[in-house]
Amino acid sequence: MEIIRYIIWTGNINDSDIVMETLESECSLIVSITDVIVCIETKLTTADIRKRVGDETEIACIELTETFTNKLLNTKFIEEEQKNFRRFLNLTRVPKTINEGLDLISERGGLDYLTEREIEALDRLTNKSN
């Protein structure tokens, strides 16, 4: 199962807290963008996320595809939201080309020092399966 990035909108700060507390152990990264927007990186599906936080918690959970991410970057986030969203994207950045992957391996000192997310991206780039 691959690692997926999601953006989650909640109805209020209490729901955001519930999302963050409930999903903390299932996520490799959680970043609060605003009081009502949370970005996560996880192996969970949207159905798994909904099941864990419960039906009474108001959320909208959308996978961060490249197209959707670009659309969000071009919307009118206020400066602080834009900064937090870009920080999340930078923390979850993976190589998009084989050359970037080779540079990353060289920078880190070998494959053993790459994260699971980075190895998955390299596997996709080289068409290898786990």
Q: What proportion strand?
A: 15-25%
Outline type: globular
> Could you give a short account of the major beta sheet?
4 strands, antiparallel
Q: CATH fold name of the largest domain, please? A: Alpha-Beta Plaits
Structure description:
The chain is α+β, with helices and mostly antiparallel strands. The protein folds into 2 domains: 4-91, Alpha-Beta Plaits (2-Layer Sandwich), CATH 3.30.70.100; 94-130, no CATH class. Helix content is 47%, strand content 18%. It is built from 6 helices and 4 strands; from the N terminus they run βαββαβαααα. The chain has helices at 13-23, 46-53, 66-73, 79-91, 98-108, 116-125; strands spanning 4-10, 27-32, 37-42, 59-63. The protein has a 4-stranded antiparallel β-sheet, with helices on both faces. A hairpin with a 4-residue loop joins strand 2 and strand 3 (37-42). The termini are close together. The mean pLDDT is 88.
List the SSEs and their pairings.
Layout: E1 4-10, H1 13-23, E2 27-32, E3 37-42, H2 46-53, E4 59-63, H3 66-73, H4 79-91, H5 98-108, H6 116-125
